[in-house]
Amino acid sequence: MKHILICIGLGVMTNMCLSSSTPLGMVHPTPRVVETLSTDVWTGKDLCEDSLSAICLEEDSICGNWQSLYRMGCLYKEKGNSLQALSCFTQAYHLHSSDTLRKEIAETYYERGYYRECIEILRPLLSDSGMTDWNLAAKSYEKLGITDTAIMLQKVIANKDILNYKNLISLAQNLLTIQENDIALQFINAYTSIDSTNLSVNGLKAYILYRQGEYSKALYGYQKLKAMGDDLVSTNYYLGLSYAQNDSLGRAYDCLAHAAEQSKRQNPHILAQLGIISIKIGFTQEGIHNIDSAIELLQPDKSMMVSLYNAQASAYLQIRKYTEAIAKFKASLSYNPNQLRLYYQLAYLYGLQKDTANECRYCRLFIDKATTNNQLDTYPLLIEAAKQRLKDAEKAITIERFFKGETKE
Questions:
Q1: How confident is the model at residue 387 (pLDDT cuts 50, 70, 90)?
Q2: How far is CA 339 from CA 62, 299, 306, 352, in A?
Q3: Following DSSP, what letter does each residue of 161-221 receive, concatenated?
Q4: What is the distance, to the nearest Å, from the Cα of residue 236 to the centroid of all Cα atoms in its chain?
Q5: pLDDT grade, residue 364 (50/70/90)?
Q6: CB neighbours of 338 closer than 8 A, spacing ≥ 6?
Q7: Residue 369 scores a pLDDT above 80
C-alpha cells in the first residue's frame, strides 16, 4: 500500500513540474503514465509491477528524474504498450532533451503508424547519426509512398552498409517499380559478391534477371535457389518459366505443376502458364482445363462490378445523360440480373427518351421477374406504377400506329 501512495504522490508532483510547452511540437498529448501506472497497481494487472514500483520508489524527485520515466517507457515498450511508452518518453524528453529519447519517440511513432511525425523527429539527427535512424526515416518515407526520397536514403544506407539486406531488398524493389532494373542489379551484385548464400537476395536477383530477359542467367539463379532448399511457390513458378524460355518444356511443366499444387490451384497466372505448356507438350485436354480454371479465376468480382456500374449510372443521371446511364445499368444487370429495381429504372429512362417500345419491354420484364421471384409484396407501389406505365405506353403505341395507317381503330 505504501508504494501505491508514493506513486500517486509522484503523479501529482509530475503534473505540477512538467511544463505545458512541448519541445517536440509534433508530439500528440497522451495520458500521464503515472496515472495509468497507479490504476494498474490498484487493479493488480500484470504490467511488470515489481519493476515499475521499484522505479516509483526511487528517492529522486520525479521532476528531475528523467531516467525513471525513460526506464518506464522501455518497460511499456517491451510489453507492447506503445501508447504509455510514448507518454513516458515524451515526458522524459521534456525534462531532458537527448538524442536517445528523441530516437525512442521516433521509433514509437513509427510503430503507431505516425510516419510523418517520425520523420520530423528524426530530421535533426540525420546529418551525423547512425544508419539506424536513416533506416527508420527511409521506411517512413516508403510507408508514405514518397518513393523517390525513400530510394535516396536507401542508396546512402546501401553505399555505407551493403550487407544490410533488408534495406537492400527494399531498395531493389523500389527501383524495380520505377523501371531502374540495372541499378537494382548493381546493388544486388555488390551484396552477392560478399554474401552469396542469402536466399531472399538470391531470389530477387534471379527475378530481376528474368525480367531483364536474361533467361539463361535467371535459370541458373533459380536452379541455385532450389539446390539451396528454396521451395517457394514463386521460385517454382519462375523456375518453370525460365525452363520454358530455355526450351526445356518437360521440366517447365514439372515446375509449374508443382507450383499449381502448392498454390492449391488458386493462382490464375500459374494455371495459365501451366495450361500453355501442357498444350505445347501434348497434354491438350489438361491444358484446356487449366486455362479454363485460370479464366474463371481472372473474372472480376461480381458484387464490386455491380456497385461500380450502379455508381456510374447514378452519376450520369445527375447530369441527365440518360443514354449513358442506361448503358451502365445494363452492364450492372449483366453481373447480377436479379436487381429488380433496375428494370423499372430502365423503363423509366426509356420513357424519358420517348422510346416506347423499350419502355414497355422493361416494364414487362420488371413485372414478370417480380412475379417469378415472389417479390410482388416487396415492390407493390413500383409494380402498380409499372402496370400504369405499361398501359399508357401501349396506348401511345396504338395511337401512333393508327395515325400511321397501320390500324383501323
A1: confident
A2: 67, 20, 10, 21
A3: -TT-HHHHHHHHHHHHHTT-HHHHHHHHHHHHTT----HHHHHHHHHHHHHTT-HHHHHHH
A4: 25
A5: confident
A6: 369, 373
A7: yes
Tell me how far CA of residue 396 lies from CA of 58, 196, 391, 399, 400, in angstroms.
Answer: 95, 82, 9, 5, 6
- Look up residue 45 and give its DSSP letter: -
- Reported as a single tens digit per residue, the pLDDT across 158-173 is 999 999 999 999 999 9
Give Cβ neighbours of residue 403 (< 8 Å, ≥ 6 apart).
none
C-alpha dist (Å) from residue 227 to 204, 223, 236 = 16, 6, 12
Give CA–CA dist 309/231, Å, rounded.
42
CA 87 – CA 73 distance, rounded (Å): 8
CA angle, 151 as apex, 149 and 154 as ends, to 5°? 110
- Answer yes or no: are the C-beta atoms of 202 and 221 closer than 8 Å: yes
Q: What is the rounded distance in angstroms from the CA atom of residue 257 to the CA atom of residue 94?
A: 62
Amino acid letter, 218: A
**Which residue's entry shows cell 506503445?**
82
CA–CA distance, 301 with 96 (Å, rounded to integer): 56
Average pLDDT over residues 270-277: 97
* H and E: helices and strands count for the chain: 22, 0
* Whole-number pLDDT of residue 36: 38
> Does the pLDDT at position 291 exceed 70?
yes
pLDDT tens for each residue of 195-222: 999 999 999 999 999 999 999 999 999 9
Neighbours of 39 (CB within 10 A): 12
**What's residue 22's pLDDT?**
35
As a whole number, the mean pLDDT across the chain is: 83
The DSSP secondary-structure symbol of 29 reads: P
Locate 232 and state its grid cell: 517457394
